[in-house]
Amino acid sequence: MFDLAVFGSLFLTLFVIMDPPGITPIFLALTAGRPGKVQKRMAFQAVCVAGGVITVFGLLGHQILNYLHVSVPALMIAGGLLLLLIALDLLTGKTDEPKQTKDVNVALVPLGMPLLAGPGRSCRSSSPCRRPTRSPRRCPCGRRSSPSTSCCGW
């Protein structure tokens, strides 16, 4: 059944995380000097790649993580460490001039995957698709708790 509240929340969250006004200058810089037709094709390819990645991760994300034996908190910690490393690189002022080549398709990487469909979007899209469990679970302190609450705040 279609839940308008979940759809609205998911759409608004993904719109804010994807940041279309912030991605636009990056897209224009990466596709500068190319014909308009090629730019339109690259924009379409980037949106298709991002939509595909978000859809697949939304439907199968938890199964993929379970298969790889990666927990969601571990993924969050890894993402935080990655952001820390990027921030430290930016703070030190190390900048390498990107080389532009006309034969590289920037629609797939970096536009499609990390910019439009990065880890934050993938994790957010998989959350509402997950079915809640009805069985009691164990709290980290060892006591049983309900599926939606925890006895010690975890």
Automatic annotation (TrEMBL):
Record carries keyword Transmembrane helix: yes
Positions of transmembrane segments: 6-30, 42-61, 67-91
Domain of life, per lineage: Bacteria
GO cellular component, one term: plasma membrane
Region annotated Disordered, chain positions: 125-148
InterPro entries reported for this sequence: Multi_antbiot-R_MarC
Keywords: Cell membrane, Membrane, Transmembrane, Transmembrane helix
Pfam families reported in the protein's UniProt record: MarC
Claim: Membrane is one of the keywords in the record: yes
Topological type in the membrane: Multi-pass membrane protein
Compositionally biased spans, kind Basic residues: 131-141
PANTHER family, alphabetized: UPF0056 MEMBRANE PROTEIN YHCE
Homology family: Belongs to the UPF0056 (MarC) family.
Protein name, UniProt field: UPF0056 membrane protein
Source species of the chain: Streptomyces afghaniensis 772
Phylogenetic lineage: Bacteria, Bacillati, Actinomycetota, Actinomycetes, Kitasatosporales
